[in-house]
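Q: How would the structure tokens look for this protein?
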Amino acid sequence: MTNAFVVNAEVRADKGKGASRRLRRLENLVPAIIYGGDKEPVSLTLKHNEIIKSLESEAFYSHILTINVAGKEESAILKDLQRHPARDEIMHADFLRVSKNQPINVHVPLHFTNEEECVGAKMEGGAISHQCSDVEITCLPGDLPEFIEVDMLDVHVETIIHLSDLVLPKGVTIAALQHGEDHDLPVAAVHKPKGEKIEEGEESASEEAGEE
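A: Here is the predicted structure in token form.
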């Protein structure tokens, strides 16, 4: 965890949909909330331009954040984010307080590496496909990685990488796998293009006909 993110916030007194609309429209503020731990939820406001800037960094989504509220700091993760469906506008943000001794569930991005050198794609004519772009993990806040690496170098054609194949940092587990083997979902695969399979079949049939 190399980056440090500080989110400056103010306590929000006005609540409700009408108040939230006024904040966004007139003051360029984002309504938010911080909850969890042994404290009561607190309604907040964030400066829209500041949160937009922070969200440009992928690490912001999988990082322990410092929420600065009226000079007091709390550790939290971004738990939920609501965006406007048509505009580059943040509608609401949810932050979950974290404790260093309490495990947390967080979605972290997957980084696919060595795809250009992948054996199945480069040497065997396959095509790489991604089944997911992030994964939910369970760990202590101090063990939270910014991403999970998926090394595609030695993946052969017609091979599927599952969640159980991922190499995880120490102290990190995949949340889905705690529910059994049925939840061992595919992450990436290398397959022959469908058209090539048909062509190969046609070539084989032609060869057999020629031999006769």
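The CA atoms of residues 50 and 78 lie 15 Å apart.

The two ends are 66 Å apart (CA to CA).

Upvote if useful.
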